[in-house]
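Recall the central idea of this unit: under ordinary conditions, the amino acid sequence of a chain determines the structure it adopts. In this exercise we apply that idea directly, starting from the sequence alone.
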Amino acid sequence: MNRFTILTLGCFSRNRYWGEEDAKSYRRALCTSTLIETPQGARILVDPAVSGAALAQVLDERCGLRPEAVDYVYVTHRHGDHYAGMTNLPRAVWLGTAYQLCTRPVYAGEIRRALPQHAKRIFAAGAEIVTGIQVLPLPGHTPGLAGLLFASEDGMVAVAGDSVMTRDFFKDRRGYYNSADFAASARSIDLLMEKADIVVPGHGNYFLTHRRAL
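Accordingly, the structure predicted from this sequence is:
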């Protein structure tokens, strides 16, 4: 079966559930980064949060791997903290959604525009990264955000990016303070509740949805 490993456990700049204000930054932000390994041997790194020596270290500590062992990098959305280490994975195929990779000037934060020297190396993912690893559109935080959905021995897993910040936001069906569309965020969370048994959020630890108990 497919398996996943949390490489970096995310944190974020402000958390309303700790009594913090949305308008104020309290700390640095770091996204949750995940490695997916398939039975066929493909390794997919989702949202590389750290770069350089730190990326090599976390891959070794969590998985016993070197950066050269990663086959695909998938970026859930265009915010820079989610692709910080992408260029340190030179052997991998670099992927995002077609929406994220468009070159329309209005989207100044798009991945290709942010990394123009690497633009020709960044490709749009299709419906699957590899067989059994499905790309799941989850708009709201950004219009083009999409996570990955796959089967594991513990049930269906969704690596959700910032469509879900933490379990608290999931329970409240709430987008983060800087989400582009809060109604779309709520609908994406509803979709995750329908499809996933386990959610890996954008800035916290994975959690159970208790989908099967509903």
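The CA atoms of residues 161 and 179 lie 12 Å apart.
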